[in-house]
Amino acid sequence: MARPIIVFDLDGTLIDTAPDLMDSLNHSLSAAALPAVDGPAFRRYVGNGGRVMIERAFAANNKPLPGDEHDRLLDLFLDSYTKSIPGKSKPYPGVLDAIARFEAEGYVLAICTNKYEANSLALIEALGLAKHFAANCGQDTFPFRKPDPRHLLETIKRAGGDPAKALMVGDSQTDIDTAKAAGIPVAAVDFGYTDRHVREFEPSVVISHFDELTLDLAGRLIRAAN
Questions:
Q1: 163-178 confidence digits (pLDDT tens)
Q2: Is residue 226's pLDDT more than 90?
Q3: How far apart are CA 40 and CA 204, in angstroms?
Q4: Is the peptide bond before 93 cis (omega within 30 degrees of 0)?
Q5: Catalytic member of 9, 11, 171, 177
Q6: pLDDT-based confidence at residue 195 (cuts at 50, 70, 90)
Q7: What is the DSSP letter of 38?
Q8: All domains in the chain, ordered by first residue
Q9: DSSP string, 44-113
Q10: For this structure, is 175 an active site residue?
Q11: pLDDT tens string 28-46
């Protein structure tokens, strides 16, 4: 019998990767003679992978981005980021306790991210968390990616979870739209990487700390969706 499942986004949800992503983005932007992005401004750029971050940086500077240049800068970004793993990245407060309580209750856990799969796997392994996740699916795992609901549904399938007993946890409109399209409830963290408050995207619930992601809350959200 398929087990209940919690599927997490990675960057800005499970793991605070912003310092390393920003360093790698700025490494890439410097090669294009664009100004570096600072911490407060970074929220406007992050999300949906390195390619999109570069696009947003060029758009913010009203500078054209030819395809070959885009590819070159993405290669620089990925090379810089990959070499830094795990860098300064670390789990958000309460993540390890949340993992423990859901595992103890028989939930299977998975990651569904728009990070490249190899980088997601490397990061989770480097942080000593790989043993907790039955699947870790990135933007290139399937021929589709979030907000396509198939990315989430195929992640659940790969992990051996039950989509009728599933909860998504994310930090962005992309995560929320993906879960809604899949017919799965979604808890949105309000400390992640988005320049608009997640409540604007109407998730099932908003949490401010992983201590709020209780067994009771997950059970209620799952039951309400069925």
A1: 999 999 999 999 999 9
A2: no
A3: 27
A4: no
A5: 9
A6: confident
A7: -
A8: 3-16+89-224 (3.40.50.1000), 18-84 (1.10.150.240)
A9: TT-SS-HHHHHHHHHHHTT----HHHHHHHHHHHHHHHHHHTTTT-EEPTTHHHHHHHHHHTT-EEEEE-
A10: no
A11: 999 999 999 887 778 777 7
